[in-house]
Specification:
The chain has 3 domains: 215 residues, Beta Barrel (Thrombin, subunit H), CATH 2.40.10.120; 89 residues, PDZ domain (Pdz3 Domain); 97 residues, Pdz3 Domain (Roll). The radius of gyration is 27 Å and the shape is globular. The protein has 486 residues and is α+β, with helices and mostly antiparallel strands. It has 8 helices and 29 strands. The strands form 6 sheets. It has a 6-stranded antiparallel beta barrel. Strand 26 and strand 27 form a beta hairpin. The chain starts with a helix and ends in a 5-residue tail after the last strand.
């Protein structure tokens, strides 16, 4: 708010100076421009603040000591702990959220969530509602909460891909829980930079040590004040459209003070948000190569060099080879490992990718028909699981946390298979010995390498269906799964 006060003081000074000046017309023109900018900010805030909420995080095992007093009879008197649903409750842990559905859907940052916690949302009308996690995705750092409501005002989204350095932006949030009454606080600044990284990781040389997309460089950097509690807030343009979800990166992540960043509202953001609103898992593309940046002294060349190609992955099936240099992914130029990880990782699983490569100095185009699925690690919440078939669910083999070990020990079907993730006890699949961790290579004699291919093969089949497992020594490879009892 200090910046707004400073702006008003400056405008008053400008006004007085303009009245005393002989060049009154020019001064008045400058004053009018400043007033117009101020009015644009006021209107942008007014249009969006009804879509910004305060979030309190309350630990279920909270045993924080209470202050006590001695009453007039000399007895100890413990005060009642304010309920999180009470306006008197002052949370120790807090964040911000943005309304993305009139039916009570609230978007926030995934990193503000923790296990064994309750969440309480304070709306702009000062009412307090208990929230539950609908879905959370650590790779995008996005999460959606659900509250009981029917008449909320969703935020209006803009397009972060149109942002440029120097543009004015406004941040709405809940710094230090000051907006716990539901009245969002505002700050403003400019877009300082684009496609920034969100801080150091333990071993930045390892591609697999960067579990979040933003560690590969996606973030909007702003000098707008984003203090503790503003994570999950809205970054607005002067039209009042949300162009970013604010994240306050504290000193623990490698900064001396909270740094101002925002997750851009772009195609990747919208894809993740739509799946989270449905309670579904967000999926990300996986190619199956280990890469290394081109040496700095190799002047004039850009891209990444393929150092290894994993068996049973889209990279192997597409004919990529060790030593190939990837220069573009779907038209995006590749400068280094991070840009490569971002270009592939932002694509959904089972989508296609067009790679421009160099092989022995010769340019080639490689078309990857279907990307596999990246294994997302961290605190993930899914309330609407993918469909089951006859009591079991399947996924990409690459989505298994044990995929690296499977490769190391040669347990991957190099032609492709799907991974069994869940089997309901007592179901037809369970009765035929299907268990989590098994891999299915064929359905009714047809190869299946993705969940989409698996469901295409089983769809519409009414009678028993023969499955072939990628079996280990001593296992029976063929299983016939009967229909579920009606």
């Amino acid at each position: 708010m200090y910046r707004f006060q400073s702006l008003r003081l400056a405008l008053v000074s400008l006004c007085l100076g303009g009245l005393a000046s002989t060049a009154g017309a020019e001064e008045l023109s400058g004053f009018q421009a400043a007033v117009a900018m101020e009015e644009a900010m006021v209107q942008a805030i007014a249009g969006a603040e009804q879509s910004v909420v305060a979030i309190a995080r309350v630990r279920r095992d909270d045993d924080e000591p209470l202050d006590f007093s001695v009453n007039q009879f000399g007895r100890l008197q413990l005060p009642a702990r304010p309920s999180p649903s009470s306006p008197e409750h002052i949370p120790n842990e807090f964040a911000t959220g943005v309304v993305v559905g009139s039916d009570g859907l609230i978007l926030t940052a995934q990193h503000v969530l923790q296990r064994d916690c309750e969440y309480w949302v304070t709306l702009p009308d000062r009412s307090i509602r208990k929230a539950r996690i609908k879905a959370a995705d650590p790779r995008s750092d996005l999460a959606v909460l659900q509250i009981d409501a029917t008449d909320l005002k969703p935020i209006t989204f803009g397009d972060a891909t149109k942002l440029k350095k120097g543009q004015i932006v406004i941040a709405l949030g809940n710094p230090y829980a000051i907006a716990r009454d539901g009245q969002a606080s505002a700050s403003w600044g400019i877009v300082s930079n684009l496609m920034r990284k969100d801080g150091p990781v333990p071993d930045a040389s390892r591609v697999d040590s960067k579990p979040a997309l933003h560690q590969s460089g996606t973030l909007i950097q702003t000098d707008a004040k984003l203090n503790l509690g503003t994570s999950g807030g809205a970054l607005l343009n002067l039209q009042g459209e949300m162009v970013g979800l604010t994240v306050s990166l504290a000193a623990a992540a490698g900064y001396e003070q909270s740094a101002g960043f925002a997750i851009p509202v772009d195609e990747t953001f919208q894809h993740a948000l739509e799946r989270l609103k449905q309670g579904r898992e967000v999926n990300y593309g996986f190619l199956g190569v280990g890469v290394q940046g081109i040496a700095a002294n190799d002047q004039g060349r850009r891209g990444v060099v393929i150092m290894s190609v994993a068996a049973g992955t889209p990279a192997r099936r597409s004919g990529l080879m060790d030593g190939d240099v990837i220069t573009h992914v779907n038209g995006d130029e590749i400068f280094d490992q991070d840009r490569f990880m971002l270009a592939v990782g932002k694509l959904p699983a089972e989508s296609s990718a067009i790679l421009r490569i160099e092989r022995a100095g010769r340019p080639l185009v490689i078309v990857v028909d279907e990307l596999a699925k990246y294994c997302v690690k961290g605190y993930k919440v899914v309330t609407t699981p993918e469909p089951a078939w006859r009591g079991m669910r399947v996924d990409h083999v690459t989505a298994s946390p044990d995929f690296g070990d499977l490769i190391t020990h040669g347990r991957i079907d190099t032609q492709g298979s799907v991974w069994v993730t869940e089997v309901e006890e007592g179901s037809p699949a369970w009765q035929q010995g299907l268990r989590p961790g098994m891999m299915i290579s064929h359905v009714a004699g047809n190869r299946v390498a993705t969940p989409g291919q698996f469901f295409d093969q089983v769809s519409g089949k009414q009678g028993p269906v023969k499955l072939k497992l990628h079996a280990q020594a001593g296992e029976e490879p063929d299983r016939v799964i009967a229909p579920e009892a009606s």
